[in-house]
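Support case: phosphoenolpyruvate complex. Customer-provided input:
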Amino acid sequence: MIIITQPGATEEQIEQIVARVHEFGLETQISRGSSRVIVGVIGPEELVREKPLAAMAGVEAIVPVLKPYKLASYQSRGAASTVEICGVSIGGDSAVTLMCGPCAVESREQMVSIARLVKESGARILRGGAFKPRTSPYSFQGLREDGLRFLADARNETGLPVITEVMDARDLPMVERYADCLQIGARNMQNFSLLKEVGRSHLPVLLKRGFSATINELIMSAEYILSEGNMNVLLCERGIRTFEPSTRYTLDLSAVPILKARTHLPVVVDPTHGVGVREIVPQMSLAAVAAGADAIMIEVHESPDDAKSDGEQALMPATLAKLVPRLRAVANAIGRDL
Ligand code: PEP
Ligand code: MN
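Agent response - structure generated as follows:
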Protein backbone atom coordinates (compact mmCIF):
# COMPACT_ATOMS: atom_id res chain seq x y z
CA MET A 1 0.00 0.00 0.00
CA ILE A 2 0.97 3.61 -0.25
CA ILE A 3 0.21 6.46 2.12
CA ILE A 4 -0.44 9.79 0.45
CA THR A 5 0.18 12.75 2.73
CA GLN A 6 -1.78 15.99 2.74
CA PRO A 7 -0.16 18.82 0.78
CA GLY A 8 0.71 20.72 3.98
CA ALA A 9 1.93 17.73 6.02
CA THR A 10 4.88 18.65 8.24
CA GLU A 11 8.16 16.73 8.46
CA GLU A 12 7.25 15.76 12.02
CA GLN A 13 3.92 14.28 10.89
CA ILE A 14 5.66 12.36 8.12
CA GLU A 15 8.21 11.00 10.60
CA GLN A 16 5.37 9.85 12.87
CA ILE A 17 3.63 8.11 9.97
CA VAL A 18 6.86 6.33 9.04
CA ALA A 19 7.49 5.35 12.66
CA ARG A 20 4.01 3.86 12.93
CA VAL A 21 4.56 1.75 9.79
CA HIS A 22 7.86 0.52 11.24
CA GLU A 23 6.02 -0.47 14.45
CA PHE A 24 3.91 -2.82 12.30
CA GLY A 25 7.18 -4.46 11.22
CA LEU A 26 7.19 -3.05 7.67
CA GLU A 27 9.67 -0.98 5.69
CA THR A 28 8.98 2.37 4.00
CA GLN A 29 10.08 4.11 0.84
CA ILE A 30 9.56 7.87 0.67
CA SER A 31 8.99 9.78 -2.57
CA ARG A 32 8.78 13.54 -2.55
CA GLY A 33 6.62 15.16 -5.22
CA SER A 34 6.22 18.90 -5.67
CA SER A 35 3.26 19.18 -3.29
CA ARG A 36 3.06 15.91 -1.37
CA VAL A 37 5.05 13.10 0.04
CA ILE A 38 4.19 9.52 -0.74
CA VAL A 39 5.15 6.83 1.74
CA GLY A 40 5.35 3.43 0.07
CA VAL A 41 4.82 0.55 2.48
CA ILE A 42 6.98 -2.43 1.71
CA GLY A 43 6.12 -5.83 3.10
CA PRO A 44 2.97 -7.87 3.79
CA GLU A 45 0.11 -5.38 3.87
CA GLU A 46 -1.98 -7.55 6.17
CA LEU A 47 0.31 -6.57 9.08
CA VAL A 48 -0.91 -2.97 8.84
CA ARG A 49 -3.83 -1.77 10.92
CA GLU A 50 -5.27 0.64 8.40
CA LYS A 51 -7.81 2.60 10.45
CA PRO A 52 -5.44 4.08 13.06
CA LEU A 53 -2.97 4.85 10.29
CA ALA A 54 -5.63 6.65 8.21
CA ALA A 55 -6.58 8.73 11.25
CA MET A 56 -3.05 10.07 11.77
CA ALA A 57 -2.36 13.77 11.27
CA GLY A 58 -1.01 14.53 7.81
CA VAL A 59 -2.48 11.44 6.12
CA GLU A 60 -4.75 12.15 3.18
CA ALA A 61 -5.32 8.68 1.82
CA ILE A 62 -4.19 5.10 2.08
CA VAL A 63 -4.22 3.27 -1.19
CA PRO A 64 -3.99 -0.49 -1.28
CA VAL A 65 -1.81 -1.48 -4.18
CA LEU A 66 -2.30 -4.85 -5.69
CA LYS A 67 -0.15 -4.12 -8.69
CA PRO A 68 3.61 -4.62 -8.53
CA TYR A 69 4.03 -1.02 -9.65
CA LYS A 70 3.02 0.92 -6.57
CA LEU A 71 3.98 4.45 -7.50
CA ALA A 72 3.18 4.33 -11.23
CA SER A 73 -0.29 2.82 -10.83
CA TYR A 74 -3.29 4.97 -11.66
CA GLN A 75 -4.78 4.05 -8.28
CA SER A 76 -1.86 5.58 -6.41
CA ARG A 77 -3.00 9.05 -7.53
CA GLY A 78 -6.54 8.52 -8.69
CA ALA A 79 -5.99 11.01 -11.53
CA ALA A 80 -3.67 11.53 -14.47
CA SER A 81 -0.57 13.48 -13.51
CA THR A 82 1.10 16.21 -15.52
CA VAL A 83 4.81 16.68 -16.07
CA GLU A 84 6.24 20.15 -16.61
CA ILE A 85 9.20 20.73 -18.90
CA CYS A 86 10.21 24.37 -18.43
CA GLY A 87 6.61 25.54 -18.28
CA VAL A 88 5.31 23.17 -20.96
CA SER A 89 2.76 20.97 -19.26
CA ILE A 90 2.27 17.42 -20.57
CA GLY A 91 -0.48 15.00 -19.53
CA GLY A 92 -3.86 15.30 -17.81
CA ASP A 93 -6.04 17.82 -19.63
CA SER A 94 -3.07 19.72 -21.08
CA ALA A 95 -2.86 20.36 -24.80
CA VAL A 96 -1.15 17.66 -26.85
CA THR A 97 2.53 18.63 -27.09
CA LEU A 98 4.73 18.25 -30.15
CA MET A 99 8.40 17.36 -29.59
CA CYS A 100 10.32 17.73 -32.83
CA GLY A 101 13.86 17.89 -34.12
CA PRO A 102 16.47 15.77 -35.83
CA CYS A 103 17.53 12.30 -34.76
CA ALA A 104 21.06 13.51 -34.07
CA VAL A 105 22.56 16.90 -33.36
CA GLU A 106 24.94 17.50 -36.29
CA SER A 107 25.97 21.16 -36.03
CA ARG A 108 25.07 24.43 -34.35
CA GLU A 109 23.62 25.85 -37.59
CA GLN A 110 21.51 22.74 -38.16
CA MET A 111 20.05 22.89 -34.64
CA VAL A 112 19.28 26.60 -34.61
CA SER A 113 17.70 26.43 -38.06
CA ILE A 114 15.56 23.35 -37.39
CA ALA A 115 14.53 24.70 -33.98
CA ARG A 116 13.17 27.85 -35.63
CA LEU A 117 11.31 25.83 -38.26
CA VAL A 118 9.69 23.35 -35.89
CA LYS A 119 8.75 26.15 -33.50
CA GLU A 120 7.01 28.00 -36.33
CA SER A 121 5.03 24.86 -37.06
CA GLY A 122 3.88 24.50 -33.46
CA ALA A 123 6.47 22.29 -31.74
CA ARG A 124 6.91 23.18 -28.07
CA ILE A 125 9.90 20.99 -27.29
CA LEU A 126 13.08 20.48 -29.29
CA ARG A 127 14.64 17.02 -29.57
CA GLY A 128 18.07 15.93 -30.76
CA GLY A 129 20.57 13.27 -29.73
CA ALA A 130 24.12 14.11 -28.70
CA PHE A 131 24.76 10.50 -27.66
CA LYS A 132 23.45 8.07 -30.27
CA PRO A 133 22.81 4.38 -29.53
CA ARG A 134 23.82 2.89 -32.90
CA THR A 135 23.68 -0.75 -33.89
CA SER A 136 27.18 -0.50 -35.36
CA PRO A 137 30.12 0.94 -33.42
CA TYR A 138 31.35 2.36 -36.76
CA SER A 139 28.23 4.49 -37.29
CA PHE A 140 28.05 8.13 -36.14
CA GLN A 141 27.97 8.09 -32.34
CA GLY A 142 26.96 11.71 -31.68
CA LEU A 143 28.78 14.96 -30.95
CA ARG A 144 28.68 14.44 -27.17
CA GLU A 145 29.26 17.69 -25.24
CA ASP A 146 29.49 19.79 -28.43
CA GLY A 147 26.08 18.44 -29.38
CA LEU A 148 24.68 19.37 -25.98
CA ARG A 149 26.06 22.89 -26.42
CA PHE A 150 24.39 23.23 -29.83
CA LEU A 151 21.10 22.10 -28.31
CA ALA A 152 21.44 24.73 -25.60
CA ASP A 153 22.28 27.34 -28.25
CA ALA A 154 19.10 26.42 -30.14
CA ARG A 155 17.12 26.75 -26.89
CA ASN A 156 18.62 30.17 -26.28
CA GLU A 157 17.69 31.27 -29.80
CA THR A 158 14.11 29.98 -29.74
CA GLY A 159 13.08 29.46 -26.11
CA LEU A 160 12.20 25.82 -26.84
CA PRO A 161 13.11 23.46 -23.96
CA VAL A 162 15.30 20.57 -25.07
CA ILE A 163 15.09 16.82 -24.60
CA THR A 164 18.10 14.62 -25.24
CA GLU A 165 19.17 11.05 -24.57
CA VAL A 166 21.49 10.01 -21.78
CA MET A 167 23.01 6.59 -22.50
CA ASP A 168 25.45 6.22 -19.66
CA ALA A 169 25.16 7.19 -16.00
CA ARG A 170 28.71 8.57 -16.17
CA ASP A 171 27.50 11.25 -18.61
CA LEU A 172 24.49 12.27 -16.52
CA PRO A 173 26.04 15.28 -14.72
CA MET A 174 27.15 16.68 -18.09
CA VAL A 175 23.79 16.09 -19.78
CA GLU A 176 22.00 17.64 -16.80
CA ARG A 177 23.95 20.87 -17.32
CA TYR A 178 22.37 21.38 -20.75
CA ALA A 179 19.10 19.42 -21.00
CA ASP A 180 15.59 20.25 -19.81
CA CYS A 181 14.35 16.66 -20.05
CA LEU A 182 16.32 13.41 -20.12
CA GLN A 183 15.51 10.64 -22.58
CA ILE A 184 16.16 7.00 -21.79
CA GLY A 185 16.32 5.16 -25.10
CA ALA A 186 14.59 1.91 -25.97
CA ARG A 187 17.86 -0.02 -25.68
CA ASN A 188 18.37 1.18 -22.12
CA MET A 189 14.83 0.66 -20.84
CA GLN A 190 16.04 -2.07 -18.52
CA ASN A 191 19.40 -0.56 -17.63
CA PHE A 192 18.38 -0.50 -14.00
CA SER A 193 21.42 1.32 -12.65
CA LEU A 194 20.87 4.10 -15.22
CA LEU A 195 17.17 4.23 -14.28
CA LYS A 196 18.09 4.65 -10.61
CA GLU A 197 20.53 7.44 -11.46
CA VAL A 198 17.96 9.42 -13.45
CA GLY A 199 15.53 8.71 -10.61
CA ARG A 200 17.76 10.94 -8.50
CA SER A 201 17.90 13.71 -11.13
CA HIS A 202 15.99 16.98 -10.80
CA LEU A 203 15.02 16.74 -14.49
CA PRO A 204 11.94 15.02 -15.95
CA VAL A 205 12.58 11.73 -17.73
CA LEU A 206 11.06 10.41 -20.95
CA LEU A 207 11.33 6.63 -20.78
CA LYS A 208 11.08 4.80 -24.10
CA ARG A 209 9.63 1.32 -24.32
CA GLY A 210 12.19 -1.32 -25.23
CA PHE A 211 11.36 -2.89 -28.57
CA SER A 212 11.05 -6.30 -26.94
CA ALA A 213 9.44 -5.12 -23.73
CA THR A 214 5.89 -5.72 -22.58
CA ILE A 215 3.73 -2.87 -21.35
CA ASN A 216 4.11 -4.04 -17.75
CA GLU A 217 7.90 -4.21 -18.12
CA LEU A 218 7.84 -0.58 -19.27
CA ILE A 219 5.80 0.38 -16.22
CA MET A 220 8.16 -1.52 -13.91
CA SER A 221 11.09 0.39 -15.41
CA ALA A 222 9.24 3.65 -14.73
CA GLU A 223 8.78 2.39 -11.17
CA TYR A 224 12.60 2.27 -10.77
CA ILE A 225 12.75 5.99 -11.56
CA LEU A 226 9.77 6.90 -9.37
CA SER A 227 11.05 4.84 -6.44
CA GLU A 228 14.18 7.00 -6.31
CA GLY A 229 11.97 10.07 -5.83
CA ASN A 230 11.73 11.50 -9.35
CA MET A 231 7.98 11.70 -9.99
CA ASN A 232 8.33 13.41 -13.36
CA VAL A 233 8.28 10.47 -15.74
CA LEU A 234 6.81 10.30 -19.24
CA LEU A 235 6.22 6.91 -20.88
CA CYS A 236 6.94 6.61 -24.60
CA GLU A 237 5.63 4.03 -27.07
CA ARG A 238 8.11 3.84 -29.95
CA GLY A 239 7.34 0.56 -31.68
CA ILE A 240 8.05 -3.07 -30.88
CA ARG A 241 9.58 -5.89 -32.86
CA THR A 242 7.12 -8.20 -34.56
CA PHE A 243 7.30 -10.52 -37.58
CA GLU A 244 6.12 -7.73 -39.92
CA PRO A 245 8.97 -6.43 -42.10
CA SER A 246 7.06 -3.66 -43.95
CA THR A 247 7.87 -1.20 -41.18
CA ARG A 248 10.98 -0.86 -39.03
CA TYR A 249 9.00 -1.73 -35.90
CA THR A 250 5.28 -2.17 -35.22
CA LEU A 251 3.85 0.91 -33.52
CA ASP A 252 1.71 -0.49 -30.70
CA LEU A 253 -0.95 2.19 -30.38
CA SER A 254 -3.06 -0.01 -28.13
CA ALA A 255 -0.34 0.64 -25.53
CA VAL A 256 -1.60 4.23 -25.22
CA PRO A 257 -5.03 3.59 -23.67
CA ILE A 258 -3.63 0.62 -21.72
CA LEU A 259 -0.83 2.71 -20.18
CA LYS A 260 -3.29 5.48 -19.40
CA ALA A 261 -5.61 3.05 -17.65
CA ARG A 262 -2.84 1.35 -15.66
CA THR A 263 -0.76 4.41 -14.76
CA HIS A 264 -1.17 8.10 -14.01
CA LEU A 265 1.88 8.99 -16.11
CA PRO A 266 1.67 11.01 -19.33
CA VAL A 267 2.06 8.95 -22.50
CA VAL A 268 4.13 10.02 -25.48
CA VAL A 269 4.11 8.35 -28.90
CA ASP A 270 7.10 8.37 -31.24
CA PRO A 271 5.65 7.34 -34.61
CA THR A 272 8.95 8.11 -36.35
CA HIS A 273 10.91 5.22 -34.81
CA GLY A 274 7.70 3.22 -34.57
CA VAL A 275 7.42 2.85 -38.33
CA GLY A 276 10.79 4.03 -39.66
CA VAL A 277 9.23 5.03 -42.98
CA ARG A 278 8.83 8.75 -43.65
CA GLU A 279 5.76 8.34 -45.89
CA ILE A 280 3.52 6.89 -43.19
CA VAL A 281 4.70 8.94 -40.19
CA PRO A 282 1.92 11.55 -40.71
CA GLN A 283 -0.89 8.97 -40.67
CA MET A 284 0.47 7.25 -37.59
CA SER A 285 0.93 10.60 -35.84
CA LEU A 286 -2.74 11.38 -36.44
CA ALA A 287 -3.67 7.93 -35.14
CA ALA A 288 -1.51 8.47 -32.04
CA VAL A 289 -3.36 11.70 -31.19
CA ALA A 290 -6.68 9.91 -31.73
CA ALA A 291 -5.53 7.12 -29.40
CA GLY A 292 -5.01 9.66 -26.61
CA ALA A 293 -1.27 10.40 -26.65
CA ASP A 294 -0.31 13.38 -24.49
CA ALA A 295 2.66 14.23 -26.70
CA ILE A 296 3.99 13.20 -30.09
CA MET A 297 7.70 12.99 -30.85
CA ILE A 298 8.58 13.42 -34.53
CA GLU A 299 12.00 13.49 -36.19
CA VAL A 300 12.44 16.38 -38.63
CA HIS A 301 15.45 17.14 -40.84
CA GLU A 302 16.00 19.82 -43.47
CA SER A 303 18.05 17.54 -45.66
CA PRO A 304 17.16 13.95 -44.72
CA ASP A 305 19.30 12.41 -47.46
CA ASP A 306 22.38 13.89 -45.79
CA ALA A 307 21.31 13.10 -42.21
CA LYS A 308 23.92 11.35 -40.06
CA SER A 309 21.25 9.00 -38.69
CA ASP A 310 17.65 7.98 -39.39
CA GLY A 311 17.27 10.17 -42.51
CA GLU A 312 14.86 7.71 -44.12
CA GLN A 313 12.29 8.29 -41.41
CA ALA A 314 12.63 12.07 -40.89
CA LEU A 315 9.92 14.45 -42.09
CA MET A 316 10.84 17.56 -44.07
CA PRO A 317 9.93 20.78 -42.22
CA ALA A 318 7.28 21.58 -44.87
CA THR A 319 5.58 18.22 -44.26
CA LEU A 320 5.47 18.93 -40.54
CA ALA A 321 3.98 22.36 -41.19
CA LYS A 322 1.15 20.77 -43.21
CA LEU A 323 0.63 17.98 -40.68
CA VAL A 324 0.19 20.14 -37.56
CA PRO A 325 -3.26 21.60 -38.44
CA ARG A 326 -4.49 18.06 -39.12
CA LEU A 327 -3.12 16.86 -35.78
CA ARG A 328 -4.91 19.80 -34.15
CA ALA A 329 -8.17 18.85 -35.86
CA VAL A 330 -7.91 15.30 -34.51
CA ALA A 331 -7.04 16.60 -31.03
CA ASN A 332 -10.06 18.92 -31.12
CA ALA A 333 -12.27 16.03 -32.26
CA ILE A 334 -11.44 14.18 -29.03
CA GLY A 335 -11.86 17.28 -26.88
CA ARG A 336 -8.23 18.36 -26.58
CA ASP A 337 -6.10 21.26 -27.76
CA LEU A 338 -2.77 21.03 -29.55
C1 PEP B 1 15.93 8.40 -30.74
O1 PEP B 1 14.98 8.96 -30.18
O2 PEP B 1 16.67 8.97 -31.55
C2 PEP B 1 16.18 6.97 -30.47
C3 PEP B 1 17.36 6.43 -30.65
O3 PEP B 1 15.07 6.32 -30.08
P1 PEP B 1 14.87 4.79 -29.59
O4 PEP B 1 15.64 4.66 -28.32
O5 PEP B 1 13.39 4.71 -29.42
O6 PEP B 1 15.38 3.90 -30.68
MN1 MN C 1 16.41 8.45 -34.42
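The chain has two domains: 2-64, 82-333.

Case will auto-close in a few days if no follow-up is received.
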